[in-house]
Amino acid sequence: MSLTLYRLEGCPYCEFVVDKLEALDLEFDSVWVEGRHSRRNEVNAVSGQRQVPVIVDDDYGVTMSESARIFEYLETTYGEADSPEEVEAAI
Q: What is the pLDDT of residues 22-37, one digit of tens each?
């Protein structure tokens, strides 16, 4: 499994996602981004926008932003989902 979370220090939305990742006992890499939107080139390169949090799940080929959507995706994919079709239906 290869999960990468693009996050900003002190971002409550990012911490919301971190809490979910930890609750599901998932290993992930953190990429800390710049505070200024204009300098968030790493996020822009993977997601086409500069907001955080952004999660990249290489196993499923998913890149997404917005903490509520990420939370739901993680729960569906790694919590209760039984199949990849359920994952796709959730996003």
A: 999 999 999 999 999 8
